[in-house]
Write a structure and sequence with these properties.
single chain, mainly alpha, Hypothetical Protein Yqey, Chain: A, domain1, Arc Repressor Mutant, subunit A, 2 domains, 8 helices, about 75% helix
């Protein structure tokens, strides 16, 4: 029997395979994490309201996230993946601010400060000092650390528990204070 398949099983099964395969690929390719959708919406909003500095910062952030996605070979960048990228961007701004301050370039310092403010809006609510200290204390008890020699174990677990809601320097300072 040569020719096109009749309305029997070969056509129906072929159609179902192609349809569901397309649906699976479509959902994988176009499903975006909540944070990425928010960034895209904010880019559109900044374009409409002609906020050039915000738009520039968000485009740089989106580019950094896309670069991270390609580097790690991910289909979708999740919120958990995006937080370290945003933190890295903030750290770059902080380093640039330090350089500009020492060079006496207040105009560039203020520009970097504004960009850092935009980026901080995409991070989760930071832990307060008391919450951070309670987290580090619980980690110290969990690990059973008694001296500064075990600071690496404490830091590893504390950073994981803070989940991007605290700076590594702040965690280290509290851990050092508690492990005296």
């Amino acid at each position: 029997m040569n020719g096109p398949p009749v309305c029997g099983t070969p056509f129906a099964s072929c159609y179902n395979f192609v349809y569901f395969r397309f649906q699976a690929n479509f959902n994988t390719l176009f499903k975006m994490a909540n944070l990425l959708e928010q960034i895209d919406a904010d880019i559109k909003s900044a374009m409409r309201s002609k906020q050039a500095e915000t738009l520039s910062t968000l485009r740089l952030l989106k580019s950094a996230l896309k670069y991270y996605q390609i580097e790690k070979k991910l289909d979708v960048v999740s919120d958990a993946d995006a937080i370290p990228v945003i933190q890295k961007q903030i750290k770059q701004r902080q380093d640039a601010m330090d350089s500009y301050r020492s060079a006496g370039r207040d105009d560039l310092f203020k520009k970097e400060e504004a960009e850092m403010g935009v980026l901080r809006g995409y991070l989760p609510q930071a832990l307060s000092t008391d919450e951070l200290e309670a987290t580090v204390k619980s980690v110290i008890q969990e690990v059973g650390a008694t001296s500064r020699a075990q600071i690496g174990q404490v830091m590893k677990l504390a950073i994981a528990k803070a989940a991007g809601r605290a700076d590594g320097k702040a965690i280290n300072a509290i851990a050092m204070k508690l492990l005296q």
